[in-house]
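Worked example 4.2. Below are the chains of a multi-component assembly; read each line carefully before continuing.
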Amino acid sequence: MATIRDVAKLANVSTATVSRVLNNQGYVNNETRKRVNDAIKQLNYRPNDVARSLFKGRSKMIALFVPDIKNPFFPELARAVEDVTNKHNYTFVLCNTDDNLDKEITYLNGLQQKSVDGLIMVSSTISQEDIKNISVPIISLDRKFSSEVSSVTVNNRKGAEIATRYLKSIGCKRIAHICGPQSASNSMDRLKGYLDVVKHESWFLSSYVVSGDYRFQQSFEITREMLTQHPEIDGIFVGNDLMAVGVLKATKSLKIKVPEELSIIGFDGISIGETTTPTLTTMQQPIYKLGVRAAQILLDHINNPNHDIIQEEWDVTLIKRDSTK
Amino acid sequence: MATIRDVAKLANVSTATVSRVLNNQGYVNNETRKRVNDAIKQLNYRPNDVARSLFKGRSKMIALFVPDIKNPFFPELARAVEDVTNKHNYTFVLCNTDDNLDKEITYLNGLQQKSVDGLIMVSSTISQEDIKNISVPIISLDRKFSSEVSSVTVNNRKGAEIATRYLKSIGCKRIAHICGPQSASNSMDRLKGYLDVVKHESWFLSSYVVSGDYRFQQSFEITREMLTQHPEIDGIFVGNDLMAVGVLKATKSLKIKVPEELSIIGFDGISIGETTTPTLTTMQQPIYKLGVRAAQILLDHINNPNHDIIQEEWDVTLIKRDSTK
DNA sequence: TTGAAAGCGCTAACAA
DNA sequence: TTGTTAGCGCTTTCAA
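Applying the procedure described above to all four chains together yields the following structure tokens:
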């Protein structure tokens, strides 16, 4: 690889001049500029970003932490972040944390050593304390973990309330909830929204709430169990779409007709909900948009050290499909 | 952030000695080592990887190119690669190429400037010519694009043949194929495997092969069309699982019973195939394993400049589920 | 308008 | 066993 010195030599100028041409700043005579550009072309020269980073202390690199990219909620988020960062010539680093604090800390340290410019984190385990010696901007996405960190989330509680009310409005008399993991703030907020609507109903039983893990398989099993114990249930608000697909599957194995006998509504709006039969009614998050906003805010924070904390909370939208009557 | 000089000063040694302790090489007196380690701890010092990279010309960073992480085949691949690279303290960069050559070239240049140590590419568009001035190891994954590049793929043709023969073996008399995009070598190989089995059958019609794009929506539409035109079809080998889910959906909208009237087999073995009703029979690729192998071979190539070209071709496995009788 | 030179933080000869 | 020093490739002051 050619270096700036090779270019300087060929163009008969100093490295400083080449640098000026490269960065388009300072005075450079037009003819000199041309000579330099010719030399650059001739040598197929590309500046070494590592050297630049060392000098500047910035890497033009940002990282996204997700629990697991295999969970279908995250690829769309990742894609959104990557699209924005790529457009701004940032390199996109992906980290799977498995919701494991040790892994998160290890990533955090490693990335700091690489002068990463900023971080977007989907995390249930990290705390304000853990990031106190991180000197680069952090945006929390999908879940909040501190009031001192900018965040992009949705109004989970309100969304859950809308979902549950919708089930009531279409005539459901016994509405259950499959909730996500306790560790995730969004899951707890959705539970609250559900309880807001049903907790004073005379029919409400605490056994109408069962705990899932945001994944398909377990949801299938616990739903079979719950519906066997409680055949009177005629509506389920499920904490996310992936578990709702498990619920759908469970109803088939129990020969329960959806939506005739049981209405199901999920949360997230991931694309798998369009492929099932029946298609899945859901509270749709603007997933791509959330990723875009997180990335935009991060880039803004990177470029404006004296930024305010921004906490955006987006609305979710009821998408009526065929799993509710 | 503390630098090596701060540590040296505090421990009353030279930076060279600190470096020796850091890298565990060369002679260091035990007591000196202790002093240095104490200073490191006291200052919470972490070496600057950018400076290291500049010196070594290596970044401990590898990148994975995929067409689109939203396509559910790729997250598992990405996860596998990230797991391996993370274990070896490499930073994992993800690039969505959209199968767009210009984007690939731009990524390639940008990453070279960052001294990326190696690349794993899932690409249909790149050619030997395009990478001739890439000086770091490249592994092609899922699709081959050159005999001079190490690769990890599956035996698509044989897998397709097995799938098609299986449909015959369970009594299908008119077997169609939804194939993937022409640009992808794996898609064309699967088509060949299908043709190997059916092209000399008296019933075979060229209209039994229709072209999809590896995605759900289009597959739904073209399958409806095909099955309307050709109600005699009683078996479909689908180029990938995502399209097979579209096929399943199409059969429901046409009230065709699967597997009683029509057997369907997909390819890939992504997890969505376990969530459908009926569950999807498929030719399962060892997706995670493929990603792991690609990463392992890449790391090997990075560490052994005089490596041989390795082209691994893995077998796919017939997974019988409920979409075939 | 241009060049000389210092320095970003680290490693590795080489010398002591 | 330890220190001195050059240099990885770049940017930016400062001086000319």
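Take a moment to check your reading of the output against the notes. The first helix of chain B runs from residue 4 to 11. Residues 3-5, 15-16, 19-20, 22-23, 26, 47-56 of chain B lie near DNA strand C (CB under 10 Å from a C1').
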